[in-house]
Every structure is written in structure tokens, then in C-alpha cells.
Design a protein that fits this description.
By secondary structure, the protein is an alpha+beta fold. The protein is about 40% helix and about 20% strand. The protein is rod-shaped.
Length: about 140
């Protein structure tokens, strides 16, 4: 990330091309760079009368007159980080659901086991009392 100078050759432009543009770089088919600072393209009148902002480029060559040169600083786009944060949130929620799905049946099983142990103890004590009372 840092200052990178980029040149964007543009053919004859019309007022339909005016607007704000951002630059992205691609390092592989799945990863894009952070977007550049916005660059405003101003077009007044016909293709012969164009104004680019920012520009410090002057040339007599036909294509060079439509060259937009700007120095941009790449920034971390909150939207890109938003996707990562959303994915982490989803993974965390899935983990919590899985823990709950495991914990609830285990808790139920432990509760039933305790009840069975209490019932068996109570029945053993009843048997002892009954035997003690028998002559």
C-alpha cells in the first residue's frame, strides 16, 4: 500500500463519461486490492474540450490529451473488511449453535442419569427397610 502512480488511457470522451472513478488491482482471480482514492473526471462540452481533475499532463499527442494521470493512495475499504467481519460473526454464531446442540442433549442425559441413580438408591433403601421390618 502506498503511493502508486497510474495512467489510464482514455479515448475520446463525452459528457456521458464524467463521474467519480476508483482503481482496483487484481493479484489473482480471487483477491482484489483496496480501492484507490476517488478520482473525479470532469468533461465539459465535446471530446475536444475536456477537463480532467486532477491532471498536470500536457501533450500534443491526440491520445495523450485523453490520458488521466493521478497519484493515488490505497485505503482499506470498510466494505471489504465488513465482509470479513460478517464471516467471522457467522462462524461464531455457527459455533455457538453447535455447542448448544451438543450441550443440550448431554445436559438432558446427565439429568436423567442422576434421576435414575436417585431412584435406584431410593428403591434399595426401601428394600433394606422392608427386609429390616420382616421377622
Amino acid at each position: 500500500y502506498g503511493n502508486i502512480q497510474a495512467e489510464f488511457p482514455m479515448g475520446p470522451v463525452s459528457t456521458a463519461h464524467r463521474g467519480t472513478y476508483r482503481c482496483f488491482g487484481s493479484y489473482n482471480t480471487h483477491a482484489w486490492s483496496f480501492p484507490s482514492e476517488p478520482v473525479k473526471l470532469l468533461v465539459k462540452g465535446d471530446a475536444g474540450d475536456t477537463t480532467f481533475e486532477p491532471t498536470e499532463h500536457t501533450s500534443s499527442d491526440h491520445w495523450d490529451s485523453y490520458m488521466l494521470t493521478t497519484e493515488t493512495q490505497f485505503q482499506e475499504d470498510p466494505v471489504l473488511w465488513g465482509h470479513n467481519a460478517q464471516n467471522l460473526l457467522r462462524i461464531g454464531l455457527v459455533f455457538l449453535v453447535l455447542v448448544a446442540l451438543v450441550w443440550l442433549p448431554v445436559e438432558d442425559w446427565l439429568h436423567r442419569k442422576k434421576l435414575q441413580e436417585r431412584a435406584s438408591r431410593a428403591s434399595r433403601q426401601e428394600c433394606r427397610r422392608f427386609r429390616a421390618q420382616s421377622p
